[in-house]
């Protein structure tokens, strides 16, 4: 025990000062006696009365927290058992309830391997612990803030080239907080393209011992990029020796992106600013400095790139808006969030509507760095909005103007609701209670059945129904209304409610009635067509013309009335009409016909007219029955044809008459007048000799006259003989006979007569006529032969268009057709000073050919020859 | 008389020619007669004698209907020649035609004094000759 006391006393003395300063106490626990011995300082620390026996039961009362005391006892017991030392910081609560922190250190004292006592020290570490805890708290807070603001700090010792990181940075670069890393490790996750730049920048900073702010990109694990701003300050030791940098890295991606966007779009932005009429400004709230874009300066009429207070920015805001603008700005500053707002500005007495949008830029401490704003001229938009508003007001009136009301009939509650305008239409007070009967009581007695039927139909078909009916108002006034109704169904298709609209169509009806009356009074059949050529209305004349009733036609397509053969011709006309709708007569070609109910075609003339009725584009089709005209026309056409035939006949007869006139004047009158003259001369002559000479003259004239008369009789009989006997006549036989007749002549003139009837050897003809034709033509060729050459005559048959042609060609004198062409086939025409020319042959030939329906023509050249061509029927 | 009245007949009808020649003889007027059976022969004669007034006729009785060259064809040719002829010739158309078309056509020629219808009576012939003599003396 002495030793122990000595030791304590020595200790007391030795560390008396320390005891005071460091507040360290000394304690001993005797295993053997299970007793604690504490020094004075220990008692002070524990704020226990000096000399209190800790092992006594009452001791616990001095230590408020029982568990800690147990903990301490266990520590010491463990010490004894396990022979280890301990060092613990323990929070205790002293008698007055104040918490204290103590550091408890203990170790065993051994005697022959047995722990006989445990001794140690106790130090009051409350002050340190408090500040430590405060630091931790602060650190937590800082970390939290770092996290939130995306800021990390790091300290770079240039000598060791190692970096100490804040929690946030450690977390980001994936090292335990508090460990040191190399610079390369730190910048490992910097964007690959930026690593070189960052490294260089850092080493340059070391060289220059200054740190310029820089930016780099940082790649997150998910691959997204962040933009990091790095700020740094050099630090020095007490000898002003450069030691390294204290830096902060901040994620400014959002800010940077905004700036970047602005930068990228700067050019576009400038143009857009002007076009979209907006300006961009930046407000440093702290110093109240505003800078703005070119466009904004123009709007504000301030010099470009100058700084001005916020009051300048809002100087054009009219007084009534200024409070609102100020409040909006204040709110932005306060909330650090940009709520867009609108206001007006007055520039040159013109009101411009401006919408302001923006962003609040804050620093790591959450302080506002500046506010970016975009002021946009939305005057046009505003005008449109205003227009919309007024349009809405218009719409509100629309119901009233269009005289439409709507209603709802809830089947479950049987409540009927009417719109205000519906009351107005029925001219009843809006407060009046309404049920279905109310409506029905207004329905015109004659229409009630119709309306009931429609409602029933609706209940059954559950589809949209419409009916036009009359209502009788309280004051006796009758209105025509159009009721449209539909139903809402529940899941089992039961009617939940009936709802619809009701339109007062009285005026339209009146208009329609007027129009109908007008239509009825129209003199012609008229159809009114709606869309797709559907007949909407017809008048009584149309009913009469087509034999349909109005009911049968309305709703049908007009195609019903037009034969399908006109479809093709109608299509382009229809298109042309709709392209330029104006009244016009439908000219489909020669004749347009329409069909009546019996499918009888009626010739018509159709006039189309565009019609604007009840806002629809309609087509009026006026149809004029031109049957009578057609009949007249047909009659006229028939008469014309008859007349033409008659004229032809008359012309023929005239020709014959003319021929006859010619014949009478030249061939009959001439000999007769000669006879007269001869008679006169005869009277004057006294001499018998002379008279007998004169007589031969009489004989000549009379024989000539006889021949002429005979020829005429023959010709007239040929012409009047309409049923001439026909028979197959072989050309070669006729030619042979002709040659026989002219045998003497042919022999004398040595004429050569050739023939080719291979193409047509015979013809159905009057044999005597054909023989006469051959004799006349061949006779002429022989008679008018050229004395300079041997007569050559060719007779050839041909088939032209299935008809027999016959030609007689000679090499005789020929005829000057220019001079004589017009009278070549006349009677008694002679063209040669030939003694045998009598002028009868060709006249008779022509007569004989024409009587059988053929024609004869001539071609000739003087002194070369003549060809007669005959076309038989 | 050195230059007796010269009557010219252009007609293919020999009976007619005979009647005129006979009628003229009965007139007791000194004259000479020339005849041509068609217009071509008459025209040939006139053309040949266009510068010889003594050989040219005073009066031509022209038929319409003749072979080779009819009266109208003659008139057409004569019209082209008229200005070069050294003598005034009175031309009458004498035809059996009563066709108004022929009459109108004949009168359309300025050279034709009148259109006369056959038969031409001797007193009418006398009047023509006398009228021609009177008019051509001036």
UniProtKB/TrEMBL annotation, chain A:
Catalytic activity, EC: 2.7.13.3
Residues covered by the PAC domain: 86-137, 209-264, 336-390, 462-517
The keyword Coiled coil appears for this protein: yes
Sorted UniProt keywords: Coiled coil, Kinase, Phosphoprotein, Transferase
Ranges where the PAS domain occurs: 157-209, 410-462, 511-580
Any one GO molecular function term: protein histidine kinase activity
Histidine kinase domain ranges (all copies): 663-873
InterPro entries per UniProt: HATPase_C_sf, HATPase_dom, His_kinase_dom, PAC, PAS, PAS-assoc_C, PAS-like_dom_sf, PAS_fold_3
Catalytic activity: ATP + protein L-histidine = ADP + protein N-phospho-L-histidine
Coiled-coil ranges from the UniProt annotation: 629-656
Name of the protein this chain belongs to: histidine kinase
Taxonomic source organism: Zobellia amurskyensis
TrEMBL record, chain B:
One Pfam family this sequence matches: Response_reg
Modified residues annotated as 4-aspartylphosphate in this record: 63
Residue ranges of domain Response regulatory in the record: 6-133
InterPro entries: CheY-like_superfamily, Sig_transdc_resp-reg_receiver, TCS_response_regulator
Keyword annotations of the record: Phosphoprotein
GO biological process, one term: phosphorelay signal transduction system
Gene3D superfamilies referenced in this protein's UniProt entry, alphabetically: 3.40.50.2300
Protein name per the record: Response regulator
The organism's taxonomic lineage, starting at the top: Bacteria, Pseudomonadati, Bacteroidota, Flavobacteriia, Flavobacteriales
């Amino acid at each position: 025990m002495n030793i122990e006391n000595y030791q304590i006393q020595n200790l007391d003395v030795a560390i008396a000062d320390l005891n005071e300063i460091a507040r360290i106490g000394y304690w001993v626990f005797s295993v053997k006696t299970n007793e604690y011995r504490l020094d004075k300082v220990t008692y002070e620390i524990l704020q226990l009365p000096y000399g209190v026996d800790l092992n006594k039961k009452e001791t616990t009362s001095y230590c408020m927290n029982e568990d800690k005391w147990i903990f301490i006892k266990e520590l010491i017991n463990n010490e004894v058992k396990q022979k280890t030392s301990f060092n613990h910081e323990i929070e205790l609560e002293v008698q007055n309830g104040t918490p204290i922190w103590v550091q408890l250190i203990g170790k065993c004292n051994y005697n022959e391997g047995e722990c006989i006592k445990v001794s140690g020290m106790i130090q009051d570490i409350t002050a340190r612990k408090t500040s430590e805890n405060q630091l931790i708290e602060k650190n937590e807070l800082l970390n939290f803030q770092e996290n939130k603001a995306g800021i990390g700090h790091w300290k770079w010792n240039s000598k060791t080239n190692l970096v100490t990181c804040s929690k946030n940075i450690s977390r980001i670069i994936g090292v335990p907080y508090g460990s040191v890393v190399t610079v390369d490790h730190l910048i490992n996750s910097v964007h690959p393209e930026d690593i070189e730049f960052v490294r260089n920048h850092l080493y340059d900073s070391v060289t220059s011992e200054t740190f310029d702010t820089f930016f780099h990109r940082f790649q997150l694990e998910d691959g997204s990029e962040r933009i990091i701003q790095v700020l740094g300050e050099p630090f020095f030791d007490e000898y002003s020796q450069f030691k390294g940098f204290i830096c902060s890295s901040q994620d400014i991606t959002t800010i940077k992106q905004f700036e970047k966007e602005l930068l990228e779009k700067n050019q576009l932005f400038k143009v857009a600013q002007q076009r979209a009429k907006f300006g961009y400004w930046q407000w440093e709230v702290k110093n109240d400095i505003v800078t703005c874009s070119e466009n904004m300066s123009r709007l504000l009429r301030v010099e470009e790139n100058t700084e001005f207070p916020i009051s300048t920015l809002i100087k054009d805001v009219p007084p009534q808006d200024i409070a609102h603008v100020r409040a909006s700005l204040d709110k932005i500053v306060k909330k650090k969030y940009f709520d867009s707002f609108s206001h007006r500005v007055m520039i040159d007495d013109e009101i411009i509507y401006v919408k302001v949008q923006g962003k609040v830029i804050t620093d790591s401490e959450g302080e506002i760095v500046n506010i970016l704003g975009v002021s946009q001229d939305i005057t046009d938009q505003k005008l449109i909005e205003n227009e919309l508003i007024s349009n809405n007001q218009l719409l509100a009136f629309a119901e009233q103007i269009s005289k439409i009301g709507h209603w709802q009939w809830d089947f479950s509650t049987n409540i009927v609701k009417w719109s205000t305008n519906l009351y107005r239409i029925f001219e009843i007070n809006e407060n009046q209670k309404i049920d279905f009967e109310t409506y029905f009581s207004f329905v015109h007695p004659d229409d009630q059945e119709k309306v009931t039927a429609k409602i029933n139909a609706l209940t059954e078909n559950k589809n949209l129904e419409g009916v036009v009916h009359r209502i009788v108002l309280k004051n006796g006034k009758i209105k025509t209304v159009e009721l449209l109704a539909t139903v809402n169904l529940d899941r089992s298709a039961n009617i939940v409610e009936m709802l619809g609209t009701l339109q007062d169509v009285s005026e339209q009806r009146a208009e329609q009635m007027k129009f109908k009356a007008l239509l009825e009074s129209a003199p012609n059949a008229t159809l009114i067509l709606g869309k797709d050529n559907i007949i909407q209305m017809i008048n009584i004349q149309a009913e009469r013309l087509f034999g349909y009733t109005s009911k049968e036609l309305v709703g049908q397509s007009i195609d019903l009335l037009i034969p399908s053969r006109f479809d093709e011709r109608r299509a382009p006309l229809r298109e042309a009409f709709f392209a330029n709708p104006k009244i016009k007569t439908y000219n489909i070609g020669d004749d347009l016909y329409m069909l009546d109910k019996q499918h009888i075609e009626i010739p018509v003339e159709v006039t189309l007219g565009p019609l604007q009725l009840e806002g629809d584009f309609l087509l009026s089709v006026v149809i004029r029955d031109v049957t009578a005209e057609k009949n007249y026309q047909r009659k006229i056409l028939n008469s014309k044809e008859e007349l033409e035939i008659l004229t032809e006949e008359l012309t023929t007869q005239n020709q014959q008459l003319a021929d006859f006139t010619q014949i009478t004047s030249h061939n009959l009158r001439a000999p007769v007048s000669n006879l007269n003259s001869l008679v006169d001369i005869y009277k004057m002559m006294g001499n018998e000799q002379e008279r007998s000479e004169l007589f031969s003259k009489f004989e000549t004239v009379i024989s000539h006259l006889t021949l002429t008369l005979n020829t005429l009789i023959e010709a007239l009989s040929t012409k009047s003989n309409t049923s001439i006997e026909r028979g197959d006549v072989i050309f070669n036989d006729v030619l042979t006979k002709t040659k026989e007749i002219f045998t003497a002549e042919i022999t004398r003139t040595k004429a050569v007569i050739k023939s080719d009837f291979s193409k047509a050897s015979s013809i159905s003809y009057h044999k005597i006529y054909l023989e006469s034709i051959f004799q006349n033509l061949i006779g002429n060729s022989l008679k008018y032969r050229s004395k300079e050459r041997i007569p050559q005559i060719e007779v050839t048959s041909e088939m032209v268009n299935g008809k027999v042609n016959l030609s007689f060609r000679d090499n005789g004198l020929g005829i000057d057709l220019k001079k004589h062409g017009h009278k070549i086939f006349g009677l008694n025409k002679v063209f040669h000073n030939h003694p045998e020319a009598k002028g009868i042959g060709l006249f008779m030939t022509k007569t004989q050919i024409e009587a059988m329906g053929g024609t004869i023509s001539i071609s000739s050249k003087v002194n070369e020859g003549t060809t007669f061509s005959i076309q038989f029927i | 008389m050195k230059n007796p009245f010269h009557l010219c007949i252009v007609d293919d009808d020999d009976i007619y020619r005979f009647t005129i020649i006979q009628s003229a003889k009965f007139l007791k007027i000194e004259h000479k007669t020339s005849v041509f059976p068609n217009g071509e022969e008459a025209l040939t004669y006139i053309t040949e004698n266009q510068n010889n007034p003594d050989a040219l006729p005073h009066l031509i009785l022209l038929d319409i209907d003749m072979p080779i060259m009819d009266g109208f064809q003659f008139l057409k040719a004569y019209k082209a020649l008229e200005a070069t002829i050294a003598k005034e010739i009175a031309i009458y158309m004498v035809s059996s035609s009563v066709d108004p078309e022929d009459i109108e056509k004949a009168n359309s020629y300025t050279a034709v004094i009148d259109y006369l219808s056959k038969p031409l009576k001797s007193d009418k012939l006398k009047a023509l000759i006398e009228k021609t003599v009177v008019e051509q003396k001036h």
